[in-house]
């Protein structure tokens, strides 16, 4: 079975303090705590603004040896520029310190707004610009804009493949031409559970699976019942063994995924408004026995379901 990474989208939320985070835990130690309660975190501050190499290096240092981060790419590229004239912004993103995560870098998430429609030519041009490995990313980072001079990181450390995943929210993407493009460039289609608000597709287009759970009934707010967590656990188990669920909801049912012994799975809970995300993630980790591999320093996570 391939590696299974289950965690949360972001970790700095005021309502989590005194509930998930023990009372008295300082804000600067929240990542240390969260990274010992789950085995992966999706960085979302990078979506709103460029971070710094020093910050990424600090996150690397504060987390356990086998911890994994995924990184949400800037909305400036996906929402503001909307994939047009993005060479400079792409170089800036990779120069901002992403590679400082070294071996803890999982996947890079590219999330598109609900108003963004599928344009085959534009989207393929975007996919063609994505670096396939850390050396390509470092070379791209060296092309950053002058405003990052003296504040950039462009060291690959060692050559590793880069994984990219795209999350779409407009129904125009639900066509075989889109999934064909993803397969051609080895990019994952995000499987997004969004309380029925956006398209739900489970096409497997590369060697890993990226899952975002935004809320069972209410977007970003509602938690997942025991039955729902079992449903997702069963699917993760199937994907991790290289198979596709028999009832998969597919854009292109004619295309069956290439047979594999296993697939790496990234799963992030993004239902944080009512402090459900970390507890739901903990329960799913327990399903696979992955909670046993987690240390509990600097404190013991609250018991799943023990909400304030």
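Q: What amino acid sequence fits the structure above?
A:
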């Amino acid at each position: 079975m391939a590696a299974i990474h289950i965690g949360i989208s972001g970790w700095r939320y005021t309502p989590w303090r005194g509930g998930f985070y023990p009372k008295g835990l300082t804000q600067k130690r929240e990542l240390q705590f969260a990274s010992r309660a789950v085995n992966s975190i999706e960085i979302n501050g990078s979506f709103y603004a460029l971070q710094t190499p020093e910050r990424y290096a600090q996150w690397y240092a504060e987390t356990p040896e086998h911890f994994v981060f995924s990184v949400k790419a800037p909305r400036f590229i996906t929402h503001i520029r909307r994939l047009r004239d993005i060479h400079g912004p792409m170089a800036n993103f990779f120069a901002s310190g992403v590679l400082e995560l070294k071996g803890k870098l999982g996947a890079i998430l590219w999330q598109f707004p609900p108003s963004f429609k599928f344009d085959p030519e534009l989207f393929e041009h975007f996919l063609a610009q994505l670096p396939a490995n850390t050396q390509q990313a470092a070379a791209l980072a060296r092309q950053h804009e002058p405003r990052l001079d003296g504040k950039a990181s462009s060291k690959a450390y060692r050559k590793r493949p880069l994984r990219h995943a795209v999350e779409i929210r407009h129904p125009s993407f639900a066509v075989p031409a889109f999934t064909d493009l993803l397969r051609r460039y080895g990019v994952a289609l995000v499987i997004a559970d969004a309380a029925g608000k956006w398209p739900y597709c489970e096409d497997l287009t590369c060697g890993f699976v990226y899952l975002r759970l935004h809320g069972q009934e209410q977007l970003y707010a509602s938690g997942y019942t025991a039955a729902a967590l079992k449903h997702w656990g069963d699917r993760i188990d199937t994907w991790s063994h290289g198979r596709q669920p028999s009832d998969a909801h597919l854009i292109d049912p004619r295309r069956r995924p290439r047979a594999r012994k296993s697939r790496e799975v990234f799963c992030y809970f993004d239902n944080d408004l009512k402090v459900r995300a970390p507890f739901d993630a903990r329960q799913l980790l327990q399903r696979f026995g992955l909670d046993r591999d987690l240390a509990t320093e600097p404190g013991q996570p609250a018991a799943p379901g023990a909400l304030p």
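Q: And what stands out in the fold?
A: The longest strand covers residues 105-111.
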